[in-house]
Write a structure and sequence with these properties.
- The protein is mainly alpha-helical.
- It contains 9 helices and 5 strands; from the N terminus they run H-E-H-H-E-E-H-H-H-H-E-E-H-H.
- It has 2 domains: 3-63, Winged helix-like DNA-binding domain superfamily/Winged helix DNA-binding domain (Arc Repressor Mutant, subunit A, Orthogonal Bundle); 71-169, Winged helix-like DNA-binding domain superfamily/Winged helix DNA-binding domain (Arc Repressor Mutant, subunit A, Orthogonal Bundle).
- 62% of the residues lie in helices and 12% in strands.
- The chain has a 3-stranded antiparallel sheet with strand order 1-3-2. A two-stranded antiparallel ribbon has the order 4-5.
- A hairpin with a 2-residue loop joins strand 2 and strand 3.
- Helix 1 packs across helix 3.
- The longest helix has 18 residues, at 152-169.
- The radius of gyration is 18 Å and the shape is elongated.
- Residues 2-71 form the HVO-0163 N-terminal HTH domain.
- This is Winged helix-turn-helix transcriptional regulator.
- Pfam families: HTH_20, HTH_HVO_0163_N.
Length: 170
């Protein structure tokens, strides 16, 4: 491999699920250069490309489809905050999560849709149809959260979304 291709591969090995723009910023490379090397790495089965939740994420091949989806979700700060809250407080109602994190209900539901889709959270309903949120695999979820830290741009986008949602609902 070339020096730049090695850099891209090594970066993705330690930062799984990074999306294209984050990759170009982190490595300070031109987008065309990154595209070229990503295509080469994909043809050599050195990396996997996954289109999830409006972004293209890149991984080394040791991550299976389920892990790739989960990593893409927890790269978002709000989804991480929801998981941290549920891990710390245990089973909780959506209302308590909204209040504790000071987010709009629509923001919670958007992230919950993806967390549920990736089996990171389960919505349990009681006989009165009240919902309780549960992390079904806490040990695996904690391991995943330790492995993934969202980028500054990801955190800023999430915070902007929270602000807009709070203004709309306010």
């Amino acid at each position: 491999m070339t020096h730049q291709r090695d850099r891209i591969h090594d970066y993705l090995a330690t930062h799984p699920g990074k999306h294209f723009n984050a990759l170009t910023r982190a490595l300070d490379l031109a987008p065309g250069q990154v595209q070229y090397h990503l295509k080469k790495l994909q043809r050599q089965d050195q990396i996997v490309e996954e289109h999830l939740y409006g972004r293209t994420h890149y991984y080394t091949p040791e991550y299976d489809e389920g892990e790739r989806g989960a990593i893409a979700v927890v790269r978002r700060e709000t989804a991480r905050d929801i998981l941290f809250y549920l891990l710390e407080h245990g089973s909780s109602t959506p209302g308590s999560v909204v209040d504790a994190l000071d987010i709009a209900r629509s923001t919670l539901e958007w992230h919950l849709d993806h967390l549920v889709e990736q089996d990171l959270v389960v919505k349990q309903r009681d006989k009165n149809n009240h919902v309780t949120l549960v992390v079904p695999k806490p040990t695996e979820t904690v391991r995943l959260l330790k492995e993934v830290t969202p980028s500054l741009s990801d955190r800023m986008l999430d915070r902007f979304t929270r602000l807009v949602d709070s203004l709309i609902e306010g």
